[in-house]
Write the structure tokens for this entry.
Amino acid sequence: MTFKSSPNLLLRTLLGFKNLAVTGHEILVRKGVLWLSVKPHKNGALCPHCGRPGKIVKRNRKQIARASRTWRDLPVGGLATAITYSPREIICRTHRRVQEDIPWAAPHSRTTLRFEFQMMRLCKVMTQKEAAALLGVPASTLAEMLHRCVERYRDGHKLRGLKNLGIDEISYKRGHRYLTIVYDLDRSHVVWVGEGKGRETIDRFFNEVMSAGQRARVETASCDMSRTYIGAIEHHLPKALLVLDRFHVIKSLNECVDEVRKGVWRAASKAERKELKGVRFIILKNKKNRTPHEHEVMAELARTQRQVARACELKDELSHFWTYLNPDNAENFLKGWKKRIKLSRIEPLKKFAKTLEAHWDGVLASWTGVTNAVAEGLNRIIRMTKNRASGYRSTDNFTNMIYLIAGDLDLPGQIPAINCPRIIKPLHHKMLCR
């Protein structure tokens, strides 16, 4: 059975156009370009501000040709697709003389909405160079379009429902160049990125991004043991529960235990160093994760190097703090454990006891189970993004990529969900030409 249809109807069907008529086409084989002349179909001439139809202003042929515009669309069959149309002027009752709404593209954009969606979806999972090759545009052109789209769809976006936040920093360049990142721990998203890791950076977030009402609604704030972040949270969020991340507490304790091992190593003889060789990762490992052979090594270490074994035992004991069900019992255990490390006469551990006293309330609050684990996981994704691109010269570009991949706004989802062409339906989005 055969079906007869006009070439324009065939192109409209293949490209998935809805409410968009194809009035003409031309294929430039040598240049690899498919030119399509289109016009809005069955929707009238709508005002871009209020969406109501207006009276069309009459034009002659020269005016029509002068107003002609071109938009880049998704490639089809290996051909770059260009859409051309001459937007009409209308008289709106409210906004007077304006240009009609263009349903397939954002205002002042030279690409269609579905091209922008596909571009952002691809850049979330691959390098911009590879995405540019798939879309048939130069990499530098795609980078410019990508960052312009991210900024456009994030414009005017505000925080909403932030109750449990986390603060951490990430290195983005050599020479101790850092970005301060604020996370929504409930939704596992990045909500703000600022250059630097000083007090003025985090103050900018609390003063410029959050309102007084939003600060009052924050219930918990998690961070590492940095005095900068702790001071900012105590100043701006006096009602919030400050939680020192469990990971950073254990990391600080592990560093002290390793200092004990290093001190014994420096004072040990050549024969004693053979016994200490290869035990670093065993003593820093969680007790329940050690293999039977590693337990035997620890037993031998307890007979030959008592100080290292004792420091490791005290480290393993701290993990019991987070297993208590009653806060009073957990606090009593932590007080007893702090007393034991003070009486151990092991200097690095006594130093950790002072650190524990200085951050007592924050460490005690970590018993609640609030952690910065979400932030650490997102940091890993951000590092993978940076490594995939071999770094970013501009902090603005890196910030845009963070918002695209881990931001609190699904940027491709902000693109108007219009008719979805069949060629991109597997990408799980409702798209795109009205």
